Amino acid sequence: MDFLLEKRYLCFPIKCGAKPVKTRLILPDYTIVVSLELTREEPDFWVYYDALFTMGQTIRILHEGEKDDLRAENTCVFRDRPIEKTPIYREEHRPRYHFTNARGWINDPNGLLYKDGTYHMFYQLNNYGSRWYDKGWGHAKSTNLFDWEILPPALYADDSGYAISGSALFDPDNRAGFGKDTWILMYSSRYGGEPEKGQFQNIAYSADGRIFRKYSGNPIIKDTATINFRDPKVFWHEPSGHFVMVLACGEEIRFYRSLDLKNWDLSSVLEDTLINPQHKVYECPELMEYQIEGENNTRWVLSVSIDGFRRVLHIIGDFDGRSFVYDPSQKLQWADYGKDFYAAVAWNPQYEMAGRKLWIGWMCFWPYARECPKLEGWMGAFTVPRELRLVRHENGKLYIHQNPAKEIEELKQEAINTKNQVALPSNTAYRLPGGEAFSLNLELNKQDGETGNADILLHYESGETVTIHLDFLQNLLQMDRSDCNRIKLGSWFTEPLTAPLSNRNTIQIQLLIDKGSIELFLYDGRTCLTALCFPEKHSCSLEFYNYCENEIILNNITLNPIRRAKWTY
Predict the structure, then answer these.
(1) Residue 97 within a domain
(2) Of 33, 247, 63, which Cα lies nearest the Cα of 160?
(3) Do 239 and 285 touch, CB atoms closer than 8 A?
(4) pLDDT value for 316
(5) Which of 79, 94, 123 is the last residue of a domain?
(6) Which DSSP category does 366 fall into?
(7) Is the domain of 368 the same as that of 221?
(8) Are residues 252 and 188 in the same domain?
(9) Last residue within a domain, chosen from 25, 45, 79
(10) 265-277: b (≥16 Cβ within 10 Å) or e
(11) Domain check: are 398 and 486 in the same one?
(12) pLDDT value at position 157?
């Protein structure tokens, strides 16, 4: 059935768990193939096709389900605004300042670009439900990394399969032949329910960053013998005069070169048992050259998500445009010790970014991602954007430091608690107010040789507690969030999270609290830990308790409420 797109939103009623109905939405420039959990009962929420860039065109809705299934053309509604049971971005459990899409499931961030003072973020999205199906690329833009405008998706699932992860770049010199300054998306694809058919590398392009067209010559690289063959990171390498593609291929990383983005030659393979002795599957590679802080020297860092560990690993080495060589004199480093930091990728540091290193990660964990709450119509969130620096420590080793992007200062409200110093004797507590969304910065100073422990406690209004335990004997931090589990997740969620402490007497601590999440940064961002939490009510207060024999000094305490991010869609 054909419809004229006279209103911006074509809305569909969704009931989680209903029988999916395969539906085809056909427009002049592209086709969307999607499975909709349609209902004639009271829906859990409504999803929509956003016609911002296609108003005035005709859309054809084809039913591909069984004869007696609900049909999308009989349940859809056209509106000037999305249909909302609760105003979007005001739902009870949605984060206040961490990125979420207006509707649907998100996971990996993908192509990240900065142009004309605006940050663009593409990401894995099923806009038509809260399930990991029918994946395409969402698109959002921001001038400050926190207040986002949600745009229509850049890529949709279609007959060529899902559009899964990849990267983005500009082509200022028209090397690909699509036009000068073209926006290029490099992405993997896979057939929805048929992973055995393999994964393929593809191109989509756009003159203006609005509507993207898939290249007629796709796929540009295929390897039907390798099921895990995905997530191309592509950039222009000026010294060698080539485009470089870094590709995750099972337990190895492959490097390809090209002059035109269409024709690629394999240049090298990284398969190092020192890096990956357990032969886990790599995902979402990121490769950047870093200026060492305070030095004239640079080093390359390859950051990879490791599926078996569900963590992101930093590997320091050298890259010449053809191959990456790991430097075993530098330590392999986990980017984050929590379970809910994965698939992190960076804004392309070329072009207007002028070398600034800034990345963002998916804030969830695959073993329980599909069990997370979905009835509010959104599923999945990202960490705050993080600044990356390469710092040489006193031992001569290089370490990646991460801290929240400086733009978060725009969201911070007037401090509700500032203390230059608080002395905390043995077996005493110090309490602070909190809220639903806030930041806390302080320095904790213990006595030299102290072997006791201390706790940072987050007490939620509904009675749950998250405990951050500092063990100065074992130099170990342990976070226990098992009490904060309204959705009854299993041991993947309830087991403690651990991170190393140094033997220094001073610990710089930064906490970012939002509805449903905790991000912890220690030692100026050398050690990070990200964790989801699921209280019934999200407002919390803080308590510090000193179990040490000697007093602890808390210095430079600053607690700032963080305002709700501004969202448009």
Answers:
(1) no
(2) 33
(3) no
(4) 98
(5) 79
(6) H
(7) yes
(8) yes
(9) 79
(10) eebbebebeebbe
(11) no
(12) 95
Q: What is the pLDDT of residue 6?
A: 97
For residues 417 and 398, state if they share a domain: no
Residue numbers of the domain that contains 22: 2-79
The SS3 call for residue 72 is helix
Instruction: Tokens for 352, please give them.
Output: 């207007």
Residue 90 lies in a domain: no
Q: Which alpha helices (DSSP H) does 454-536 contain, by range?
A: 491-494
Cis peptide before 219 (omega within 30 of 0): yes
User: Which CATH number fits the domain that encloses residue 521?
Assistant: 2.60.120.560
Q: What is the DSSP letter of 383?
A: P
- pLDDT confidence of residue 38: 95
pLDDT of residue 191: 80
What's the pLDDT at 192? 66
Mean per-residue pLDDT pooled into runs of 10, the chain (569 residues): 97 94 95 95 96 98 86 93 95 98 97 97 96 93 99 96 97 98 97 77 98 97 89 98 98 98 98 90 98 97 94 98 97 98 96 93 95 92 99 97 99 92 98 97 97 98 98 98 95 97 97 99 99 98 98 97 97
Query: With helix as H, strand as E and coil as C, how does 260-273 read?
Result: CCCCCEEEEEECCC
Give one word for 447, left, alpha or beta, with left for phi > 0 and alpha for psi -120 to 50.
beta
User: Any idea which residues carry the catalytic annotation?
Assistant: 108
Q: Which two tokens stand for residue 419?
A: 């203390």
Rounded to the nearest angstrom, the gap between the alpha carbon of residue 119 and the centroid of all alpha carbons in its chain is: 15
pLDDT of 72? 85
Q: What value, to the nearest 5°, has the Cα angle with vertex 111 and ends 267 and 305?
A: 65
Q: Which residues, listed in sequence order, are joined to residue 206 by a DSSP beta bridge?
A: 183
Asked if residue 361 lies in contact with residue 336, where contact means CB atoms within 8 angstroms, the answer is: yes
Residue (of 6, 88, 90) closest to 46 by Cα position: 88
- Same-domain pairing of 503 and 374: no
- 142 domain-assigned: yes
pTM over 0.90: yes
CB burial string 345-375: b at 16+ within 10 A, e below: bbbbbbeebeeebbbbbbbbbeebbeebbbe
**Single-letter amino acid, residue 436:** E
Q: What is the DSSP letter of 73?
A: H
Q: What is the pLDDT of residue 64?
A: 87
Number of domains present in the structure of the chain: 3
Domain shared by 183 and 286, yes or no: yes
Q: What is the pLDDT of residue 226?
A: 84
Q: For residue 407, which phi and psi values (nearest 5 degrees)? A: -65, -15
What does 87-120 look like in DSSP terms, one character per residue? -TT--TTS-SSS---SSEEEEEEEEEEEETTEEE
The C-alpha atoms of residue 459 and residue 466 are separated, in whole angstroms, by: 7
One domain, residues 416 and 384: no
CATH number at residue 133: 2.115.10.20
With respect to residue 555, please indicate whether it lies within any of the assigned structural domains. Answer: yes
**Tokens of residue 294, six digits:** 């305070």
Question: Do 429 and 364 share a structural domain?
Answer: no
